[in-house]
């Protein structure tokens, strides 16, 4: 049988060459990347129920043409695009209609209030006491009695608020003056000068090389990371 041209990988075929399989995989990968970008960015721990359903649905739709040459890729992509359109439309409508927004993103569930465990809410969230203690330990809390409020967020994250007497002391509480925070940004990464970031600070390569010479005998190629802040403080980390 005569081989189908490489451009026909998109439609259903009786057989596909190795290159056509690769092209299908690349096309599906790029399509899913664009789909994920259009749906918004969330980490796995922040996925809502609808996000998880859409992700599983899209993966299932795209997976079949990647393993069955008799299934065309165009049908899966059209179906996926329709699902994405409905998802984006639903999300935008939810921003305007509060009843739909509350259904898709329910209010956080209080699990602890004033140091007392709300058992019925724990059951509603389908959480065990052991899991709750695991979450508390992960946030450095060893006793429920120290917690003023603990909320189980829709994304599956526990938000904690300690009682005032157990909250860390801050400079503001002691009425101490502090210096403004200046975020350091990388200007050298893996031996290469980041000119774009350097220009944000309003400096040139020559200025940076002079600054480096004052701080370290290392050449840029020998530096793993160098950071600079608004106060022109340079931190250098060798390879």
**Strand order in the largest sheet:** 2-1-3-4
Our measurement of the CA-to-CA distance between the termini, rounded to an integer number of angstroms, reads 57 Å
Number of domains: 3
SSE class: alpha+beta
State Rg: 27 Å
* Low-confidence residue ranges: 1-6
Describe the main β-sheet briefly: 4 strands, antiparallel
* Average of the residue pLDDT scores: 82
Tally of helical segments: 8
Q: Choose one word for the global shape.
A: flat
Number of strand segments: 8
H/E series, N to C? Answer: HHHHEEHHEEEEHHEE
Strand content: 15-25%
Helical amount = 40-55%
Organism: Paenibacillus mucilaginosus K02
Domain YetF C-terminal: 96-228
Protein name: YetF C-terminal domain-containing protein
Subcellular location: Cell membrane
Can you characterise this structure?
It contains 8 helices and 8 strands. With 239 residues, it is α+β, with helices and mostly antiparallel strands. It has 3 domains: 96 residues, no CATH class; 58 residues, bsu07140 like domains (CRO Repressor); 54 residues, bsu07140 like domains (CRO Repressor, 2-Layer Sandwich). It has a 4-stranded antiparallel sheet. Strands 6-5-7-8 form a 4-stranded antiparallel sheet. Helix 1 runs parallel beside helix 3, helix 2 runs antiparallel to helix 3 and helix 3 crosses helix 4. The longest helix is centred in the middle third of the chain and has 24 residues. The termini are far apart.
